Structure formats: structure tokens, C-alpha cells
Amino acid sequence: MSTIVLLIVTGFGLGALYFLIAAGLSLIWGLMRVLNFAHGAFFTVAAYLAYSASFAVPDTQPWTRWCVSLVVGVLAGGAFAAATEIALIRPLYERPTSQVLVTVGLALASLAVIQGAYGSDPLQLSLPAALTATTNIAGALVPNSRIVVIAAALAVLGALIAFLRTTRFGLIIRAGVDNREMVTALGIDVRTAFTIVFVLGGMAAGLAGVLAGTYDGSIDPARGTSILIFAFIVVVIGGLGSVTGSAVAAVVVGVLQQFLNFYAAPGTGDFAVVLLLAGVLLARPGGFAGERT
What we know:
globular, single chain, 12 helices, ABC transporter involved in vitamin B12 uptake, BtuC, two-stranded antiparallel sheet
């Protein structure tokens, strides 16, 4: 029983990381029709800048360093995303092929810069003792880092839902996801909404970069690319443009991976996720939250 509880909580933690990446991807595609392959670069760059910032803090207390790294990671992800949208994506809204090439090129260039500055080997993090400790849940010793990641993802989910449902820009974004042409025809300038969506997605990706380091105890340049692949799968399964759909899909994917990778051969969970994606595309192409077609 304790093993099952541990796998469920760990799966929820992995799903929380997927959600933090997928939420931004889903909104960016739903509103802007942009396949942003540089989203993993937001994750990676933010994680490494947060790592550097944590050692620049005069206070040597682990909690102070961790909190500073969290703030820096979120801000760095948002700033990088805003610069990407304004400088690279905005001039190419009518050229989708160019968007793909630019975002892929940015992802590769960012990875090269990070590897040149920090090397290719994983960097071990110095985390507060409370985050490396465990909590007994139904007989299972669950690492506190998993609980923190889950709590952060729930907070982001609640904040995004509140923003989309109660603010003017949130309403514009929701309307744009459903019918972008109608919003434009009403005379609403959606460019500001585009930038806001990119910034929100970048901030969530930056938060995921720091929390992934907390989850694993280390950071490495390839982590952003690997997690981006499953985030794309989560977006498709959950339904393009749906934050809640992405949240449900992220949990399903994370738990499925953990159980099958533990009880079956390593890698079985990853293969099962691909099969799940194929099944969803055949049975419900719009995803969990999409329309049946």
C-alpha cells in the first residue's frame, strides 16, 4: 500500500511539472496558433539563472537562497518569453513555418549558450533540509519536494483560472481562443493579450525550471527538452487552449508513467503515454476538453 501511495504522489508531482509547462503552451497555441518549440528554453534558462542567483545572495541560509532562486526563475522566464514574443514571434504571425524555424533555432541556441556557460554535466543543488526530508502519508515516506511541486502547480492553476475568468485580459484571451477573428473584428487589439499570454507561459515555465531542480535535486541542460516533449503530449490530450484540460491530462500522464515504469520494464510508461496520445487522437481529436469531431 505504501508503494502505491508513493507512486501516486510522485506521479502527481511529475504531472505538476508537466502542467506548468503545458499550461503556457496550451494558451499560446489556443490564442496565437504558435507552436512554441522554445518553451523548453524558457524552462532551462530560468533554472540556470536561478541557480546563479542563489549563489549571489550574501545570506547563506538555504531557505533564503531557495526563495531568491524561485523569484529569479519566475521573473527570468517571463522576461525571456516577453523578449521572444516581441522580437521574434510578433513579426512572423502570418508565417507559421517561419515561427517553427525561429523557435527551434532559439531553443538550440539557448541550449548551446547554457552548455558553454555551465557545462553539460548536471549541477547539484543545495536545498533546504525541509525540502529533502520526507513526510509520512498513509505509511509512505513521501519527499517533501514532491508536495511543494504539487502545491505550487495547484496555486498556478487557481491563479490562471481566476485570471481568465475575472479579468478583462483574461476574458479577451478566452474569447480569442474560441474565436480569434471575432475578437479582432470587434476592434480589440489582441497584440497586448498575445504578449501577456507569452509572459504568463514563460513565468510558469520558469517556475517549473526551479521546481524541477527541487524535484530532482539537480539541474541539467537536457531536462527542458525532455519535459517539453511530454508537455506537448499533455496539451494535445488535454485539449488545445484548455488550462483545466491540461491539468487533468498532466496528472493522468504523470501517474501512468510512474506506475508502468515501476511495475513494468523501464521506459514502458513513456511508451504507454504515446499509445494514450494515439488513442485520444483517434477517439477524441479535440482532447479531453475539446469538441468531438
